[in-house]
Amino acid sequence: MSNQTSFFGAVSRNPATGEVIATYPFQTPGQIERLLEVCASSFRLWRATPMAERVAAYRRLATILRERQDTLAATITAEMGKTIGASHAEVQKCAETIEWIADHGPAILADEPAPIDGTDQVYVSYLPIGTILAVMPWNFPLWQVIRASAPIMLSGNGLLLKHAPNVMGSAHALEDAYEAAGFPQGVFANLNADNEEVARVIEDPRIAAVTLTGSMRAGSAVAATAGKALKRSLLELGGTDAFIVLADANIERAVEVGIQARFQNTGQVCLAAKRFILEKPIAETFTRKFVEAAKKLKVGDPLDPSTTIGPMAREDLRDELHHQVERTIAAGARLLLGGKKVEGPGNFYQPTVVAGVRPGMAAFDEETFGPVAAIIVADDAEHAIELANASEYGLSGNLWTRDINRAHRIARRLETGGVFINGFSASNPRIPIGGVKKSGYGRELSHFGLREFTNAQTVWAKSAD
Questions:
Q1: Which of 7, 61, 165, 174 pairs as cysteine with 181 (C-beta 3.0–4.6 A)?
Q2: What's the confidence (pLDDT) of residue 2?
Q3: Greatest CA separation found in the chain?
Q4: What does the pLDDT read at residue 119?
Q5: Catalytic residue status for 270
Q6: Does residue 152 lie within any of the structural domains?
Q7: 228, 246: one domain
Q8: Distance CA 74, CA 92 (A)
């Protein structure tokens, strides 16, 4: 058992202090059966609800999140250690995303004409398919859920949330917000169960599909169960995102953005820059400035507005990260900064920079989900592209150069779901998010996410005469 769970249920601990916040007993098989019945019933009611009424509920939900922002932000910070300013920003982002979907979703989901020669009437309808199981991570306790649920539910689907055990307070807060906004009770509901029960839920005919954001191991297990049951799945499984800096880049700006790209949310971001691939002529300068900037980061109480690095979410995750750093150094990398656990209560880890990283080292090959930056030197731009693609992951990437035309050409050669030129990877409801290779498949947000879990039903009507 991890410090997330016991034999009896989920455990939420304050990662800054180690203190237990609350325990949440697992639902019994009987409770799960009743829950699935409620989900099935609420789905039938929600799918029959006119789009205008669904949109009105979305707008009420956005208002409620804003009204409860202080409480929700405090819950996020207490449960997973995000700095309080970032927690407020997360709530705000959720509200803005819901409003964007309310504004644009109905048109995206509207019947789409498919003109064919003649007088026949042909169109495609985007119809709901049922209740979707969402297995969600802890690093953005509200945003990850809204990113999944808001696009999925507008078409008339229901959503059953299996949240990470250490953020069950956030899960319950979201369920309460959906109900307060007037959504049918149970159309958004929480599942609190162990892995065996989750597998049985995936197989249950009342669950239409599953979406997961998490580890490669979890994604493989969920996809296998869903595939055996012939059910659709969407996986977002993290990455080893490259931050490529070419010789003609704006170095000062690249360092400034690179610090944020690596260390935001204490480095616990799927889209975070993890491998800094530097073209040789600027590698020494970038590295020196980057280390100087990283030294200014403040590790401490996430409730203190001046803190920039809070605790890692769990002790076992900090231990795993430290082991990755130790293995990387043992393989020949150089430690330039940090590399140690912070003594005392809480799961704090020093901002860390390792240089001389190359393929075969842990910090190159594995996802480092914490405040650790790997410095890699490329001989030239071609070598940088080769190094960026030398990963089993392919979620996102960053490219820094003043030659924008060249950047667009390079972007097409990067094996990732997203490329961000002269900036850092970000999510926005207007654009899809998702990966290739072992970063998963499927897309969330934008029109892709709104249609991902729908039945694209062709209707071809001929004249009766």
A1: 61
A2: 46
A3: 82
A4: 78
A5: yes
A6: yes
A7: no
A8: 13
